[in-house]
Amino acid sequence: MARLPLHVMPTFCAVARLGNLRAAADELHLTHSAISQQIKLLEEQIGFEVFDRRGRRVVLNAAGRALLRSAQPALALLDEGLQAAAAAAAGNAQRVRLTVLPSFAQRWLLPRMGRWHQAHPQIALEIDASQQLVDVQREGFHAGLRQGSGHWPPLVSQRLVDSPLIVVGGPAAARRLLGEGALAIARSALLGNPGLWERWFQAAGLPRQRLNPVATFNDAGLMLQAAEQDLGLALVREVLAADALAEGRLVQLHPLAIEHDGSDSYYLVYPPALADWPPMQALLQWLRAELSRPMARADAVKAGTAPADR
What we know:
Blueprint: H1 9-18, H2 21-28, H3 32-46, E1 51-54, E2 57-60, H4 62-89, E3 94-100, H5 102-109, H6 113-119, E4 123-129, E5 143-148, E6 156-162, E7 165-169, H7 171-177, H8 182-186, E8 190-191, H9 194-203, H10 220-228, E9 233-237, H11 238-247, E10 251-252, E11 265-270, H12 278-291, H13 299-302
Parallel strand pairs: 3-4, 3-5, 8-9
Antiparallel strand pairs: 1-2, 5-11, 6-11, 7-9, 7-10
Helix pairs in contact: 1-2, 1-3, 1-4, 2-3, 5-11
């Protein structure tokens, strides 16, 4: 049986995905010649071609497609094993590389980093905030904090907390609007996605509203800062507003909370090979404990004094 040259398999997978030797060379930081030689070595070693050449493009043939189906999960498994081995070899110098949305990092995680350090002084967190859905394994992260449905195979997904959307505003807005109901909110300056606001007003029992928010944002943390400065009302994840609610910088203006497309949960995700890694278990348990703390509410809303809309 032909012997598979494992060291060229990442190159094979990159060329198969990109369909171009030069593009694969750029991605892998190799020369075009080196990529070509590795593919040639692979085909010589196994005894058959895996690509059809079409001008400057290369396309997987039937044999190449069959090989790719096994190569991709095998390489992912090897990467997991290497990551787990590196984590175990670190000994007391433990470090968890974590990818997280900027809004969650800014509004929830960073204010609690002191408590993490007190609980686990031997485990450093290396936090990378990104709006993009980062490939945890490929980019070398140990874990990610994600919001969504919980389905990101082959990663393990551990649900942390549900966080519906609530309406918040600054103290000045609270003085104007607490107790006035959803119609008064509809007549106020709004921040954020008009589609989400339409859903909230529909759930509140109001007829369809003509909405023109004063500003939209690609980051919920920025929107919450705008709400704190009384630039408008925000419809945001409850967990992101928790500290500002507790400190009085924001007030929940109505008791109604809505879900968003069934993807209101936050998850910790990580490769299966790291499931039993002590720092991962420590992080998971700490996150769950911190997120189980009661959420703050505006006093009037807690007391149930918001009246029927009018």
